[in-house]
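Please check this one:

***
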Amino acid sequence: WKRNFGTEEDESVLHATEMISSNGFILAGYAVKNGKQDIMIKVVDDQGEEMDLSLNYPSPSHVNSAAANYIYSTGENYFAVCTYNKVGSDGTKMIVLVMNRDLSPMVVDLVNDYDEVGKSIAAAGDDQFLILGNRIDVRGKVETVIHMIETEDFFPIDSYPLATISDPKADLIAQRLLKTEDGRFAIVGTRRAEGNSDIFLHFMESNYSVAERILYGEAGEQRGADIALPLNEGLILLGTNGFGANSLISLIRTDVAGNL
């Protein structure tokens, strides 16, 4: 089957995952209504038919732009990593919506003085979740930031900045993270410096200390987009390789340590 969704105004899906209690799918993105962009969570069944269960979470007052960048299912509830413009000032910040099966949201405001953009989430352990994002540091460089959310019976009880990864000579634009088979965490993204860009794979140890970074560079403009665990050991990295106005799909297979 093939389906189209939307209204006479703009709607965009940025990420999707399977639903908890059915064979359907839950979609995350944004919807524009009356010139204002709000967070959108939409549900479709296993035949692609839109279900009544959905959420249009309004942006805070005086904010004209918000989006759900990533949706994650724990098996019991959902986490939506979102970005919206700050109220009354320039810049952006991250929030996380924690939703039950009925999509009733609880809001976790990841308080920080920097401009941050939400990217993805991964389970860290029992009742702990890592939130991945990017922010602009005081030098104007993009750096990777990780927040921790702690929950109890799936209710958020605490959140705090956990780690920052930066490079004094480059932008580090993170996209996705996951927990590897050896208990570490792997982050994929793009390192951009002096007009060149490479795909990076950055590791964090199980105690959340920042570990090694590996670059995958070739001719052209490399950009990291996603990461996954294959059925057998190792990692799969997805990205693009641009040449002028054209681009190619870049698919990289490594062992669990990032070696080709």
The mean pLDDT is 88.
